[in-house]
## 1
Amino acid sequence: MNLALFIPEITLLVIAAIVILLDLFIEQKRWLAQVSISGLVIAGGVTIAMWGGSYPAIFNNMLAVDNFAIFFKMLFLGIAFLVILSSTDYVSKFSKFQGEYYALVLLATLGMMLMAATTNLIAIYIALELTSISLYALVGFLKDKKSTEASLKYLLLGAVASAVLLYGMALIFGFTGKTQLGEIAQVIQSLPPMTLLASPGLLLGIVLLVAGFGFKIAAVPFQMWVPDVYEGAPTPITAYLSVASKAAGFAVILRVFFSAFGLPVWLSLNWGLIFAALAAISMTVGNIIAIPQANIKRMLGYSSIAQAGYLMVGLAAMGMASAENILGQSGVLFFLASYAFTNMGAFIAIIAISNKLNSDLIEDYSGMGKRAPLLALALTLCLISLIGMPPAAGFMAKFYIFNAAIQNGLLWLVIIAVINSVVSAYYYLRVVKVMWLGEAASAEKVPSSGALRLALLLCCIGVLLLGVIPGYAIRLAQLAANIFAY
């Protein structure tokens, strides 16, 4: 076993412990953020150095060290970096618990990195629980009525989803006698089709996996936790949930469904159709319910449900595609990278504005273009990207993933997605209209820290670069998705 390949994860674990210990002894709590960021930078440097290498799986083949896992590790580390940077203003709301806050963010990131790398059902479940428990605690950090309610609701519904997922894994293990994804695939491929069709246990297990993972990615009908949790959680954690947790869910789905259930072809076609149906329902429900929302965090909560729908277009394309066609998989990866910059940027701008206004109501953003033109401009760019309009990253992400769907016979799904993108423009542009055309309630400026402005600048640069010159990021996504090519 080569522990050198596990250095990024070990680094996060050690830094999380150091942050908790430092919190006991130092008065200047700003050092906690700096130590956390240093740990993320070290882990990120080691992870980048691994890119493109040919490494064996570690821990008895339970953790893969391939480009797919490395791509997601870089994504999660980058998101955590932005979350901690943007939290420097916000943590004053729970100044006594800053050490625990940063440590939990690091541990949740560690769990997500493991989720992207695991190739064993048991390891997947352990990594998912490490992530989930950290997030349950982070959601309730404000300790007010809304935050406590959000945390409790997330915990209870998450426990149910976890039980459903575990039951699905148990059924699959019961049918195949294996927990390793590759070995499960070998058992399934060795059996005649009639045996598989006559096995409701296996098919039910796959359906339960879809349900359990559907909760993680906030897909309909497993999305009931989203609006209340997004509204009640600290805003940096809402951003973290909307981006990192969703990306981790898709990373696991991609690996599990391709590695274990990619063959026989009829099986992948069937789960591809399931994801196609969930995609159509999720994007439609999310966009329609987002229209009347008055709270910007709830609006973006329903928006994230719709975005999960667009992402599942890529999963459907993956299920329908031939073995050598990886457009669906690489499209999902590029979309997740674009969405990470876009949604993080939107929430970072909201952190700065809401800290000043002490309100998340859209109507209170009136005249923000005059009070804080740069923040309003950044938020406008991110909302345009969420619609899928050029020159922002969202346009290229949707173009890429819709192209994959059309090439694999899912034109009807793309038509539904395009109609939904037009519908979403109404509620996204409503925020833009309020900010730029509304009357400002005050002429007072909106202050923000240098760290928050840096995080917002990085997000905006990412949104523009992925929209205008996406070639390099697309190439990275394709290299990461090459593990799916037979």
## 2
Amino acid sequence: MVNIVDRLRAVELEIGSRRAEHQIDPTLDRVAALVNVLGDPHRAYPVIHVTGTNGKTSTTRMIESLLRERGLRTGRFTSPHLVSMRERITVDGEPLSAERFVELYEEVLPYVSLVDASQPARLSFFEVLTGMMFAAFADAPVDVAVIEVGMGGRWDATNVADGAVAVIMPIAMDHMQWLGDTIEAIATEKAGIVKPGATVVLAQQQVAAAEIVLQRAVSVGAAVAREGFEFGVLSREVAIGGQQLVLKGLRDTYGEIYLPLFGAHQASNAACALAAVEAFAGVSETAVNEDGSTITLGPGLSADGLGPDLVRAGFARATSPGRLDILRRSPTVIADAGHNPAGVAATVEALTESFSFDRIIGVVAVAEDKDVEGVLNELEPALSDIVVTTNSSPRTMPVEELAELARDIFGEDRVHVVPRLDNAIEAAVALADEADADLAGGEGGGPGGVAVLVTGSVVTAGDAQLLLAPASAVGLSANSGYRNQGDQENPLLFDVPDET
């Protein structure tokens, strides 16, 4: 009998060995052919489609939490994963079991092979996972699917689906080599998920990005709801383990909301999630413009808001693994998936606001195709020391290259070089303990006043979770087919290309 852990690992390696999404000219032809031979499973349920540069995964998870509180059976698709590929495809908030993931792959593999043989290039790993996701949700079946874009929007494999609601989170500079090197170009790609007749939930944006999205909405006849206008955060206060919010929705105002996530960016994500669920539920309003014309906010199916108790319960159980995730105490070790300057800036702001550490030691591993200098510049004011290292991705920046950039920004004395992430975390913990002892002997805050922040990449955050708390946030048992498990020479042995 084949061990399911070994079989899952083999399947993940087989999927991950396919080419990355960006390696050939973008097209939806391959994934469209795949869903066609699968019987168009992406048409079997309504879709809420989420894109943006930062905040996509957290918002997707909050949307799903609210929908489940309404009693709907949900499918959720997010990427990349932290620990196991199974995290990407969830039904009713639970990742597919190892057995079901393997079974699903074996069910779609003949169709994948058929499409591979008929197209100029084989399906990419993300296209295969997207086909598996659509099939899994149709088979469940789900009442609604909340689907996060992998990269961009217009040419993303998920865009064969037509979202009833298109959620566009803040757009910033990232993936410039594939999406374009201006905000306008990137916004054009992301606005591609807006389909005729949909409702657009638009997070606060740079003006140039907002203009592109609004032009797209007008051109396809989509309704628009804008953060800061039709909905938004009215107030927020730091609370133990998160924050207390008052949110303005599309139809009602909801107070006394406890969100167990940190930072103003998560409050904004929550406001967008609420508006998306209200729009999906049919909440609408007709606004009159200065020139007397009108615009419909929402699809016009209902005038009722969501119940306040439902909203509070949905947000209270929201989670976002890898986003300011506390993995251990004494000293506190926090993992965060920030990987571009805008995301890291939000992380630093939230960390400063929500915690009162006297010093923070950083453990940083980044992908070499990112704006690494921008990331380091955002981290520098917050970190007393930085331990540069690598993660399990083949895209990780070589440690000496990262060290050279870090020395230019932090200075020689604050930079520590440790090539392996497990050893780097140990070194950072030792630095934290030493700093705690110094503080205890002086005028500082004493024990507990120093923390370790592990950041720079989604892969880095996932690797840290695998090392320190492998089952804490993703609901996966410790022997359920994690990548990298059990290799004593290198406990972080393999990864798949990530698309965010």
